[in-house]
Structure formats: C-alpha cells, structure tokens
C-alpha cells in the first residue's frame, strides 16, 4: 500500500495504542466518560482498533485500594464504549512508576499482558541506578515496557543505557509527539536517534484526552508513511503493540531515518543541505 493510500482513509488501518489515559477521573487524563468516549471515537475514525488505557500507579502503592476505584471507572467506560464503539478493543493496564526498590508487583492484572508491564521512572529524570530500577520489574518476571525513554532528563548524555536496558530484556516505547519535538529538543533528538539505531519496539500516544495532550498514533503512522517507512510503521504502530497486548514478543524493527529532527532543521536553517 502506498503512503498516499495509507493516508487517504483510516478504514484499512488497524493501529494499536498501548499507552493512554482514558479511565475518567483517576489521573491527569480524561475527566469524564463523555470526554473519554469522544477521544476514543476520534481514534476509531483514524484507524485505531485496539487501545489499552493505562492510568498512573505508583509501584509502592500497587497493593492499595486505587486499583478498585480504577476498575470500577474502567468498567463503566468499557460498557459505554462497547455500545458506542463496538469495533474497538479496549483493555485496562497501568503505567507503573518504579518509585521504590522493594515493591510487590505480583498482581498480573497490572500488566499490558500477563508478561508485559508498562513502567516509567519518577519525575521524568534518569534514575540514579537505571538498570537496577528496571530490575524491580524483571525480578518479578515482567518484561518491562519502558514508557517514553526519550523523555527522561539526562538520557541524551547516557544514551548507551538504552542498549543496556534492551539487553536486560526491556522494550522501548516512544511517545508519538516526541517525533516532532512536543517535549523539547532532547526528547526529539533521542527519539530520532533511537529510531535510526533500531532501538524502538513500539510507538504509543500517551493520549490524555486533553486539548494539549491528544496526539494520536495515526499522526505517527502518517509521519512514518510519508517518509517511506511503511513496514516500520506497521511494526511500531500495529503488529508490535498488538503482539505485546497478546503476551507475545515484538518483532525487530528496521532502522527509521526521518531526517528532519532538531539537527535537520538547524542544518536547513543555516543552508546546509545534506
Ligand atoms: Fe502516560
């Protein structure tokens, strides 16, 4: 399928988004079921067929009552979505913040699947012990899916950590909007470099159902397809996130060179054509 055909309609796409905040009223995502349904409807129209919604959860509080509140609100959303958007596959998992070294993550319902756990570091900064922090999850037989590795302040200077995380079995999940600098220069630069180095397993939206946090996986599809990377787009935005939600291993992704990141724009600005 050509990039032009891919862009013409969402009908033929089957995009999968495994990092979103649509459970109403439980974090900084959707504030109501209506707001969540409107956002989910827009995604369906763009060719998104499966969505995991992943409220924030501190690992140190994984055993608390928050999960009961989330589950109740999620079930209300799921039944409303089943009626309004019957073709959408919706599931619940958590974005688990690894905030303490000794935590109980034995509840398999926390995961995207019974093998894969979406995790993030605290405060959007590189932790003092980056490998040990992820080992909190691997020690408990999870495959960590690290949310937005490109966004942790200090990651550019410690870029080699990304290979180390992957060597210990972790998967890397970029945020869509890092592709065009929504989170600043460092995140954009690292996102483009990771794609060029083949270090990305999946791209997800981190959609918050708020006007300033509502980028979609379709935008990443269009961006990659426009640049001629349809096969990588299929893996990063459909096959791999689908495999993870099914508890399977994602496939290796070919190198993606988008070529117009921060450095590309500077080069164009100063008239240095590549
Ligand atoms: Fe998130």
Secondary structure layout:
Blueprint: H1 3-8, E1 15-17, H2 33-45, E2 48-53, E3 56-58, H3 66-84, E4 89-92, E5 95-97, E6 116-120, H4 130-138, E7 143-147, H5 160-167, E8 171-175, H6 185-196, E9 202-204, H7 217-226, H8 230-245, H9 262-269
Parallel strand pairs: 1-2, 2-4, 3-5, 5-6, 6-7, 7-8, 8-9
Helix pairs in contact: 2-3, 7-8
The structure holds fe (ii) ion.
Write the H/E string, N to C. HEHEEHEEEHEHEHEHHH
Helix content: 25-40%
Count of structural domains: 1
- Class based on secondary structure composition and strand pairing: alpha/beta
Second CATH tier, the architecture:
Alpha-Beta Barrel
**CATH C-level category:** Alpha Beta
Give the DSSP E fraction (strand runs of 2 or more residues). Answer: 5-15%
Regions with pLDDT < 50 over 5+ consecutive residues? 1-10
Structural overview:
With 274 residues, the chain is α/β, with parallel strands linked by helices. The chain has one domain (3-269): Alpha-Beta Barrel (TIM Barrel), CATH 3.20.20.140. The chain is built from nine helices and nine strands. The chain has helices at 3-8, 33-45, 66-84, 130-138, 160-167, 185-196, 217-226, 230-245, 262-269, and strands at 15-17, 48-53, 56-58, 89-92, 95-97, 116-120, 143-147, 171-175, 202-204. It has a six-stranded parallel sheet with strand order 3-5-6-7-8-9. Strands 1-2-4 form a three-stranded parallel sheet. Helix 2 (33-45) links the parallel strand 1 (15-17) and strand 2. Helix 2 crosses helix 3. Residues 1-10 have low confidence and may be disordered. The chain binds fe (ii) ion. Fe (ii) ion binds at residues 19, 21, 95, 147, 206. Fe (ii) ion is lined by residues 19, 21, 95, 147, 206.
């Amino acid at each position: 399928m050509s990039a032009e055909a891919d862009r013409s309609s969402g009908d033929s796409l089957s995009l999968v988004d495994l990092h979103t905040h649509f459970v109403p009223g439980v974090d900084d995502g959707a504030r109501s079921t209506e707001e969540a349904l409107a956002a989910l409807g827009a995604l369906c129209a763009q060719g998104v067929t499966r969505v995991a919604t992943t409220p924030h959860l501190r690992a140190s509080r994984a055993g608390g009552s928050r999960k009961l509140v989330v589950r109740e609100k999620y079930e209300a959303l799921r039944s409303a979505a089943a009626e309004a958007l019957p073709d959408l596959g919706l599931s619940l998992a958590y974005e688990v913040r690894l905030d303490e070294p000794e935590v109980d993550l034995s509840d398999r319902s926390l995961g995207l699947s019974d093998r894969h756990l979406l995790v993030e570091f605290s405060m959007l900064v590189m932790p003092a012990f980056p490998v040990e922090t992820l080992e909190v999850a691997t020690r408990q037989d999870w495959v960590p899916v690290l949310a937005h590795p490109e966004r942790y302040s200090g990651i550019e200077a410690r870029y080699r950590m990304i290979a180390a995380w992957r060597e210990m079995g972790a998967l890397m999940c970029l945020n869509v909007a890092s592709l065009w600098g929504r989170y600043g220069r460092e995140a954009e630069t690292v996102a483009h470099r990771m794609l060029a180095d083949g270090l990305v397993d999946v791209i997800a939206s981190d959609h918050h159902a708020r006007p300033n946090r509502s980028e979609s996986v379709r935008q990443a599809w269009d961006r990659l397809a426009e640049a001629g990377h349809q096969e990588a787009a299929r893996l990063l935005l459909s096959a791999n996130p689908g495999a993870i939600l099914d508890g399977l291993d994602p496939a290796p992704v070919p190198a993606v060179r988008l070529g117009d990141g921060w450095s590309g724009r500077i080069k164009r600005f100063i008239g240095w054509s590549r």
